[in-house]
Amino acid sequence: QSGWTGVNERTFIAVKPDGVQRKLVGEIVRRFEKRGFKLVALKLVKASEELLSEHYWELRNKPFYSTLISYMSSGPVVAMVWQGLDVVETARKMLGETNPADSLPGTIRGDFCVQVGKNVIHGSDSVESAQKEICLWFRQSELHRWESSSTNWIY
Ligand code: RTP
Ligand code: MG
């Protein structure tokens, strides 16, 4: 899907299995809503190893790869698509650094976790990755098109 730039930019966010088990879903959704982003899709998914191997294709040769796949398939994740101005970059700032130990308080990882192997949340690292990840995790029919609906009560 092309054309999702500017205010219509989209990113893929997933609350990882530890975040779901620790009941951080509401808090994370709240932060994205309050920041002013629009929710485009949301579902609870038990990711297959096949899906995860595509999602983490670029990390396939890393020493932590198999640990990462076990972690991500240890329970359901909450997969989401959020839309808004520069949402890819802003979401990464809201998440904090990959290693929670390097994440500032006020960021999601900086507030809720301490270990890189259990870092609560995923966010796409570029507009291109976001497009790939959205196509991998969602069908087109699962994505809400805000542009073509009446949103009179949303500023
Ligand atoms: P994410 O994709 O989950 O948003 O995280 P990221 O871009 O900040 O980091 P990335 O390099 O894409 O790594 C993906 C996930 O792999 C786990 N990881 N473990 N043991 C380690 O050194 C290590 N490094 C990365 C983390 O769960 C990381 O989020
Ligand atoms: Mg990444």
UniProtKB/TrEMBL annotation:
<feature type="active site" description="Pros-phosphohistidine intermediate">
    <location>
        <position position="122"/>
    </location>
</feature>
<protein>
    <recommendedName>
        <fullName>Nucleoside diphosphate kinase</fullName>
        <ecNumber>2.7.4.6</ecNumber>
    </recommendedName>
</protein>
<keyword id="KW-0067">ATP-binding</keyword>
<keyword id="KW-0418">Kinase</keyword>
<keyword id="KW-0966">Cell projection</keyword>
<dbReference type="InterPro" id="IPR023005">
    <property type="entry name" value="Nucleoside_diP_kinase_AS"/>
</dbReference>
<dbReference type="GO" id="GO:0016301">
    <property type="term" value="F:kinase activity"/>
</dbReference>
<keyword id="KW-0547">Nucleotide-binding</keyword>
<feature type="binding site">
    <location>
        <position position="109"/>
    </location>
    <ligand>
        <name>ATP</name>
    </ligand>
</feature>
<dbReference type="Pfam" id="PF00334">
    <property type="entry name" value="NDK"/>
</dbReference>
<keyword id="KW-0732">Signal</keyword>
<feature type="domain" description="Nucleoside diphosphate kinase-like">
    <location>
        <begin position="8"/>
        <end position="145"/>
    </location>
</feature>
<comment type="function">
    <text>Major role in the synthesis of nucleoside triphosphates other than ATP.</text>
</comment>
<keyword id="KW-0808">Transferase</keyword>
<feature type="binding site">
    <location>
        <position position="98"/>
    </location>
    <ligand>
        <name>ATP</name>
    </ligand>
</feature>
<keyword id="KW-0460">Magnesium</keyword>
<feature type="binding site">
    <location>
        <position position="16"/>
    </location>
    <ligand>
        <name>ATP</name>
    </ligand>
</feature>
<keyword id="KW-0963">Cytoplasm</keyword>
<feature type="binding site">
    <location>
        <position position="64"/>
    </location>
    <ligand>
        <name>ATP</name>
    </ligand>
</feature>
<feature type="binding site">
    <location>
        <position position="119"/>
    </location>
    <ligand>
        <name>ATP</name>
    </ligand>
</feature>
<keyword id="KW-0479">Metal-binding</keyword>
<dbReference type="InterPro" id="IPR001564">
    <property type="entry name" value="Nucleoside_diP_kinase"/>
</dbReference>
<dbReference type="InterPro" id="IPR034907">
    <property type="entry name" value="NDK-like_dom"/>
</dbReference>
<comment type="similarity">
    <text>Belongs to the NDK family.</text>
</comment>
<feature type="binding site">
    <location>
        <position position="92"/>
    </location>
    <ligand>
        <name>ATP</name>
    </ligand>
</feature>
<keyword id="KW-0131">Cell cycle</keyword>
<dbReference type="InterPro" id="IPR036850">
    <property type="entry name" value="NDK-like_dom_sf"/>
</dbReference>
<keyword id="KW-0539">Nucleus</keyword>
